[in-house]
Design goal:
There is one protein chain. This protein is an alpha+beta fold. The protein folds into 2 domains: 148 residues, Major capsid protein gp5 fold, CATH 3.30.2400; 144 residues, capsid protein of prophage fold (2-Layer Sandwich). Helix content is 22%, strand content 27%. The longest helix has 29 residues.
Length: 364
């Protein structure tokens, strides 16, 4: 019996290649590590639009009951409490990019190995695109020409979704008694005291900030800029960095889980991670000249992502291949139909994320 194979020129090969390229690109990203279909994922994937037509997903949450009930001879009829639902909408948009190369560079240049080169370039582009957009959305700070402009969406976030600045009650500052960026001093850096403040705020947050689940253990995730990590590591006294390191393995299995294995440590149910994509600023302090960075504290459903029906199944993107000038050039166009947003229900604060602004500068 003849076997089934796909030649380099087969349209089906392009589809399989698109799926593999996307999955290989996502694996090393922070976006990929923190995304999942569970309600306990930090970024929850909603796949309703993968099965139906449409460009919007509506998320809703039931607010906690507020009524006090009745007692003794009081009448219950007429004093019932209704169900209060909050919602927000995530819209999809279309993002495209393309690569074009010359096939006839030499007699050894074939479509097959050019595809491999393009695959590597597409993976690199997708990694940068997804991780940059992920951090822009959750920090509420663009990485384009200004903090209000997205690097990859300069004309506005994909699908008309908004780049939302942190809710006032979900923005924590370094230092003592600091309530605005102008109050940050150069010494108000990331420290154990800041992490204590974060833990307190996360536990008392309203709406409730649920911990995410990793390998059966519940925790929040704190992502810091390398400058903030260095500030935290600078203190080696009792109860500071070394004690955080000792707690890196506390209470559970960590082998095989990319979140746990890449963590700097754990403190008060917070896994500490590091990323160069955390935004930095240079205009904090009373004189507008203090360097700062914005760390993230993430819980379950801090963000949501959805993909469109027309992207490749399980691949989340499609690739269209085309030759030009009678086969002299080969081009690949990458299309992603998707949307990502920070979770914020109507009339409520950010649902599962705190922003933490501290002074942060390179080590001298």
């Amino acid at each position: 019996m003849a076997g089934t194979s796909f030649t380099a020129a087969s349209p089906l090969a392009v589809k399989l290649w698109a799926r593999k390229a996307f999955m290989d690109a996502v694996k090393p990203t922070m976006f990929g590590k923190l995304t999942g279909k569970s309600e306990n994922s930090i970024v929850q994937v909603k796949d309703e639009l993968g099965r139906t037509e449409g460009d919007r997903v509506r998320f809703r949450i039931k607010a906690l009951p507020q009524g006090i009930g009745v007692q003794d001879d009081q009448t219950l009829e007429g004093n019932e409490e209704g169900l209060d639902y909050k919602y927000f909408d995530l819209h999809l948009g279309e993002k495209r990019h393309a690569f074009k190369v010359e096939l006839n560079l030499s007699q050894h240049r074939t479509m097959a190995n050019v595809r491999e080169d393009m695959k590597a370039s597409i993976e690199e582009w997708v990694q940068e695109y997804l991780d940059t957009t992920f951090f822009e959305v959750l920090t509420g700070s663009g990485q384009g020409s200004t903090t209000s402009v997205s690097k990859y969406h300069p004309s506005g976030m994909l699908g008309g979704n908004s780049l939302l600045a942190p809710s006032a009650d979900r923005l924590v500052y370094g230092g003592t008694g600091v309530t605005a960026k102008a109050g940050i001093a150069a010494g108000d850096v990331m420290s154990l005291a800041v992490l204590d403040k974060i833990a307190e705020r996360a536990k008392l947050a309203e709406p409730t900030m649920r911990k995410a689940t990793f390998d059966g253990k519940k925790a929040w995730v704190v992502i810091m800029h390398p400058y903030q990590v260095n500030d935290l590591r600078a203190s080696t006294s009792t109860g500071q960095w070394f004690d955080i390191q000792k707690a890196a393995m506390q209470g559970g299995k960590v082998d095989g889980n990319p979140i746990w294995t890449e963590s700097l440590g754990m403190y008060r149910d917070m896994i500490l991670l590091e990323s160069t994509r955390i935004p930095t600023f240079s205009d904090y302090g009373s004189g507008g000249n203090v360097q700062a960075a914005r760390a993230l504290v993430l819980g379950a459903q801090a963000g949501v992502v959805a993909y469109g029906k027309e992207t490749q199944q399980d691949g989340r993107m499609k690739i269209a291949e085309k030759t030009f000038d009678y086969g002299k050039y080969l081009g690949n166009a990458v299309t992603m139909i998707w949307g990502i947003a920070k979770t914020r229900f109507s009339d409520q604060s950010d649902y599962g994320v705190f922003a933490v602004d501290t002074a942060a500068a390179p080590t001298n």
